[in-house]
Amino acid sequence: MRHLRPEDYRVMPWKNGGGVTTEIAIYPEDAGLSGAGFTWRVSIAEVTVDGPFSRFPGYDRHIMTIAGKGMMLAAEGHGAIDLSQRFVPREFSGDWDVDGKLIDGPVRDFNLMVARERAKGGLTVETLSDRRRHAAEDDTLLLNVLEGDGIAEARVIAEGDTLVLSAGESISVTPASAELRLAVVRAREV
Question: What is the three-state SS of the chain?
Fold first, then answer.
């Protein structure tokens, strides 16, 4: 298991140059640096202006607002995607032309992108008020602390931290604050 803190993440411009993203984790780890396509990637984007999303053909995208009033996505030929509620994941194809319109000021969004021919993935949110065991079965499991803090066995985890568990690993997480909100990401190669 790896315990990542915000200082471990990489900050970089968006693929289309329209903003900045903070890469939490990528697989394989050298994918972004080598120029090779990644199998999956988890990141947080700062969205400060309306505009087009970067296209990622061949990838499935999972996204949710984690700060701010949210935004509406216009997916050409596929309707609207409502990101006005915090911590509610939505999905869309990286093949689509998508434009984002902020509702009322900047937002931060949490993202999972998965190469659909090489992997399957999912994004959910859990709010813990008691101890809970999390296990990676035949996948990689990422637990990102969205709000609150807690104890992951002997480790203190704080807002912004991420635990990365490989297949077969498990950990118990106990909230240290009234509630602990986690983004739960699963990614499995196919």
Answer: CEEECHHHCEEEECCCCCCEEEEEEEECCCHHHHCCCCCEEEEEEEECCCEECCCCCCEEEEEEEEECCCEEEEECCCEEEEECCECCCEEEECCCCEEEEECCCCEEEEEEEEECCCEEEEEEEEEECCCEEEECCCCEEEEEEEECCEEECCEEECCCCEEEECCCCEEEEEECCCCEEEEEEEEEEC
pLDDT digits (tens, 9 = 90+) for 75-110: 989 999 999 999 999 999 999 999 999 999 999 999
Q: Are 56 and 112 in contact (CB under 8 A)?
A: no
Q: Which two tokens stand for residue 130?
A: 């008691």
**Type of residue at 65:** T
Total-model pTM: 0.94
Q: Could you say which residues of the chain have pLDDT below 70?
A: 33-35
pLDDT score for 18? 72
